[in-house]
Amino acid sequence: MELLPLVCLCLLTWSGTTFADGNGPGVVTVAVAEGSEAVLPCSLSTRQNIEQKVFDWKKDVKKEVFLYAAGQHYNKGRTGQDEQFKGRVFHFEDELKNGNASIKIHNTKMADSGSYTCTFPNTAEPESHVKLVVGAAPEPSVATLNQTIDWALLQCVVRGASPKPKVEWQDGSGNILPAEEPQVSERGGRYDIILQTTVTKTDRYRCVATQEEINHQVHSDTYVLMNDRREENNSGES
Questions:
Q1: 232, containing H or E segment
Q2: What is the model's pLDDT at position 25?
Q3: The model's pTM
Q4: 214: confidence class by pLDDT, cuts 50, 70, 90
């Protein structure tokens, strides 16, 4: 009846993952972890110098994110930027000569998630559309709640995750284990999930939390050592 004090936390993190999105043609999705940096891509199709041009980034149609006008922008005292983005949005000045109007958002927050558009006013250049997903992916916490000679009750807790993850227990061979109905609660778009399973053999067990919307997965491992009845019986007979 012993649980070895071995817990391995493994993260498959994502940083600035960019992939095609099913919301429509030309829409790019950028997925980042909360608190990291997000790069939203936008460039002139001609790649011509835009140092003396104008480009404008907006969120959800109305929120002013970043406006560049021939060298003038919000980080140089220009007014009009939405409070949400002040001091956190920057462009790639050295890339302007190559037509690159991409921006980077520092210290991303879940509230930054949404639809962004990049436009070049007074040109025939079409809008660029970017969907930003800022996810919170805290690591699972695993524990043994109870253990006998025959079984051990394992618990996995994921707190504050967004978007809602799928949580599973696996054995050392990667097989998904039967588990109790997960306990799920939600507050402010963040999810707390508790999942318990009962195991009956010595093995390494893994709790896996998967967030498919942002192509992210994280897991924690624990090793359970079950006593062997035969060894106990032999010890008692000697």
A1: helix 229-237
A2: 55
A3: 0.70
A4: confident
Stretch(es) of the chain classified as CATH 2.60.40.10: 7-13+136-237, 35-135
Distance CA 198, CA 151 (A): 7
What tokens were used for 104? 């980077």
> How many other CB atoms sit within 10 Å of the CB of residue 208?
21
Question: How many degrees, rounded to 5, is the angle at CA 186 between CA 182 and CA 191?
Answer: 65
Instruction: List, for residues 136-170, the tens digit of each pLDDT value.
Output: 888 999 999 999 999 999 999 999 999 999 999 99
AA identity, residue 210: T
Phi and psi for 231 in degrees, rounded to 5? -65, -40
Task: Measure the CA dihedral 26/31/35/41, to 10°.
Answer: -30
82 within 8 A of 61, measured Cβ to Cβ: no
Instruction: Report the distance separating Cα 170 and Cα 180, nearest Å.
Output: 13
First to last CA, the chain: 21
Range 35-135: architecture per CATH: Sandwich (2.60)
Domain 7-13+136-237's class? mainly beta
- The contacts of residue 173 (CB under 8 Å, 6+ apart) are none
